[in-house]
Amino acid sequence: MWALIFHTGLSAGRLLSIRYDDIDGDLILIRKQGHLKELRVKSTPPVEAMIARRRERYPEDVYLFQSHSNRVKYHRRPVTIIAFNTALRRAARSLPDLNVSSSSARNIPD
Questions:
Q1: How far is it, in rounded angstroms, from Cα 108 to Cα 17?
Q2: Has the keyword Ion transport been applied to this entry (predicted)?
């Protein structure tokens, strides 16, 4: 997911809300959320490849990033931002000198 944040420039919250129904070829619909407007984002080949891998691995999922927790086993819900940040923090432990967060992927200089 961090790589998708990097490639799309979208926030983690907006990426977590994407359903496979929102993806049409190289266009991704980002639905209106609260005060945030609806967006249409053009994907790139790396983004399309990541989406295809997720779809192949989890063919029954509704959300691009769907929770597989036992707590929501019978309800199709996206991963929460808290769960994503927890996993990211755990993965970043091996990178002691880097500040890795859900927003750091959007702030990498070209």
A1: 23
A2: no
For residue 90, is pLDDT > 90? no
Supply the pTM of this predicted model: 0.81
- Report how far residue 70's alpha carbon sits from residue 26's, in angstroms, rounded to the nearest whole number: 33
CATH number for the 2-99 domain, one of 3.10.150, 1.10.3470, 3.90.15, 3.40.50?
A: 3.90.15
Structure tokens of 19?
């359903």
Contact 11/102 with Cβ under 8 angstroms? yes
Show me where the domains of the chain are located. 2-99
